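User: My collaborator sent over this chain with a note saying "see what the structure looks like." That's all I know about it. Can you take a look?
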Amino acid sequence: MKKIKVGINGFGRIGRAIYRINHLRRDFDIVAINDINPDIKNMAYMLQYDTTYGRFPDPVKHNENKIFIGEHEVNVHHQQRILDVPWEKHDVDVVIDSSGIKSNLEPMLNDATGKIKFIVTNVPGHKDVKTIIFGVNEEECDYSTHNVFSSSICDTIALAPILKLIQKTHEIESGFLTTLHPWLSYQNLLDGPSASWSQPGDVFSHYALGRASTENLIPKSTSAITAADCVFPGLSEKVQSLSFRTPTKIVSSAVLILMLDKDLTKEELQGRFHEFEKTQKYKVFRNSVEPLTSLDYCGEEFSAIIDQRWSKVERGRHMKLVYWYDNEWGYSNRVNDLVVKIIESHESQNNT
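Assistant: Without extra context I'll predict from the sequence alone. Here is the result:
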């Protein structure tokens, strides 16, 4: 397989995590970055130093329009619009849009060249966007039929494989999901308007999200279930969800409670996850019984770590699971997997 050339649009938390992970895995060549931050020195600085994941292992240098890591160089642009970036000039095969800006979607869908494949690191819920979640439907990644793929969101890539595993033998009658999610960069240090990140200039009607992020548990809605509708149509009619933004910087947790259509023992439930872990191709699940706290899971590559200490089944059909996930690092690992999967699909089709 040829070395993939990748561009990153949006060099924030997820964009930089993707870069760091690829530096370790060497799956592809990142040849171009676009970010609206006009200060390339600051971009290099934020890649070099990170409060959550530590110092970048190699020196990061720069000039007026490039970042250098060792002998590797990355072209840097500062365009507002994703298609104004000269991706083809850099022979880019796949562009990862990690900006989170919803207005980028239509230009990607309407790209006249059709030569570049796009990955959006959020869930637009668009009929022309194919959502791929590892552990659920990665074999549906068809390069020939889609130009834009979605890698979903961190909450859903953790949840959806769990649902897939359960629904192999059981129907879900009803359920509740509660997620505990660390603060995000658009939240406030002090009380203020709840400004939108994905739609710049908008103010959320959910005013509580504008309260001081370091001092509050903030209840809010979550798109974890509606995002899962992309791979499990109708799920949102059965399972309800709630989220709390927590005064922590990294690692999410969730409690999933489901009512099933027929009996399932705790031993069968746990055994199913242990068996999946042994045979999985991608790092979807890891099982744990250690008495750990959230920061112990920082830097986890897995989509979800099932905390089997809290697995319960009551009266045969009423089950509960607790799981953890690094909402940046685990998620970004699956984005990197999706880049490789897209190119594998392309290579497979060319060889048939």
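A starting point for your reply to your collaborator: The chain has seven helices and 17 strands.
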